């Protein structure tokens, strides 16, 4: 009999825990003759009663396990902790807000079992969201797929079912700065994607602000592409060429028509332009250096306060 481990990152989700557990248990009850299962709830430093709700489930069900962080380390750290600790032949990752339909699990299992896929992921085809967020999300996938050698499917979710071999491959990637969507694609293997229509949260509110999403997108681009560094180089080259052409223009005009450049505004504009380009390129370089700095510290991705 196969074993399935389900990883569930949680941050201030006290309203969703019980609803999520009941919904997933209905799915597992339908397949319990062929599969054992266990839950790994990862409490990512919640400030509400999320941990207490998880402990209540633990008392009622021996299949429930949890890891509680010493503080909020972020969803990437929570997923990493789950992958490092979950046991089973198959490992699944699912959000606790039920925007990922548990009803897809049997179909995901079937693809891995019968068609020898190593991973089955999910793509959200439609979802009610702010038009600005939708535009930025679409733009992000276009940009990162243009810049990176690794293709990341648009609107792909963290919701996926993986074989033990696939999970072990992901765990072997030890970097501190983690962008799971890119890592899942980078390891390769035979992957199937299922599409489903987006649904609203079962309870509570999203904890991702627009700024956090933009920051997360930038991290993904930096982690999986060196194109921004190359762009900075070419922008620097272009800036030099423009500056040289400008100087030639000034010299030639002085030789042919006499007189120097009239006034300082043009000079100030050129200086500001070149200075802006330099700062822009330094900013790109600084992001990469910052990532190297974090990696060189060899700090753990998370600190566990309690585990059962």
Summarize this entry quickly:
The protein has 308 residues and is an alpha/beta fold. It has helices at 17-30, 50-60, 75-85, 105-115, 131-147, 164-171, 180-186, 210-224, 227-257, 265-297, and strands spanning 2-10, 35-43, 64-69, 90-93, 119-126, 156-163, 191-197, 304-307. The longest helix is centred in the last third of the chain and has 33 residues, at 265-297.
What does this structure look like?
There is one protein chain. By secondary structure, the protein is α/β, with parallel strands linked by helices. Helices cover 51% and strands 18% of the residues. An eight-stranded mixed beta sheet has the order 7-5-6-4-1-2-3-8, sandwiched between helices. The longest helix is centred in the C-terminal third of the chain and has 33 residues, at 265-297. The chain has helices at residues 17-30, 50-60, 75-85, 105-115, 131-147, 164-171, 180-186, 210-224, 227-257, 265-297, and strands spanning 2-10, 35-43, 64-69, 90-93, 119-126, 156-163, 191-197, 304-307. The two termini are 24 Å apart. It has ten helices and eight strands. It has two domains: 2-209, Alpha-Beta Complex (Spore Coat Polysaccharide Biosynthesis Protein SpsA, Chain A); 227-297.
């Amino acid at each position: 009999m196969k074993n399935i481990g389900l990883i569930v990152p949680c941050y201030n989700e006290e309203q969703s825990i019980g609803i999520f557990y009941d919904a997933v248990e209905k799915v597992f009850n339908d397949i319990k003759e062929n599969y054992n299962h266990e839950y790994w709830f990862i409490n990512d430093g919640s400030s509400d009663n999320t941990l207490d709700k998880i402990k209540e489930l633990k008392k009622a069900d021996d299949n429930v396990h949890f890891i509680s962080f010493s503080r909020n380390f972020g969803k990437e750290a929570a997923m990493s902790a789950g992958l490092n600790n979950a046991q089973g032949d198959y490992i699944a990752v699912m959000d606790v807000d039920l925007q990922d339909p548990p009803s897809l699990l049997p179909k995901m299992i079937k693809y891995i079992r019968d068609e020898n896929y190593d991973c089955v992921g999910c793509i959200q085809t439609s979802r009610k969201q702010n038009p600005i967020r939708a535009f930025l999300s679409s733009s992000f996938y276009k940009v990162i797929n243009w810049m990176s050698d690794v293709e990341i499917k648009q609107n792909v979710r963290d919701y996926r079912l993986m074989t033990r071999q696939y999970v072990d491959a992901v765990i072997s990637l030890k970097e501190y700065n983690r962008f799971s969507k890119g890592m899942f694609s980078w390891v390769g293997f035979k992957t199937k994607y299922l599409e489903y229509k987006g649904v609203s949260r079962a309870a509570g509110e999203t904890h991702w602000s627009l700024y956090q999403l933009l920051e997360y997108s930038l991290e993904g681009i930096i982690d999986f592409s060196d194109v921004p560094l190359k762009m900075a180089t070419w922008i620097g080259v272009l800036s030099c060429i423009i500056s040289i052409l400008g100087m030639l223009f000034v010299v030639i005009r002085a030789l042919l028509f006499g007189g120097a450049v009239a006034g300082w505004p043009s000079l100030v504009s050129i200086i500001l332009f070149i200075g802006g380009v330099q700062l822009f390129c330094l900013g790109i370089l600084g992001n990469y250096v910052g990532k190297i700095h974090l990696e060189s510290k060899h700090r753990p991705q998370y600190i566990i306060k309690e585990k059962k």
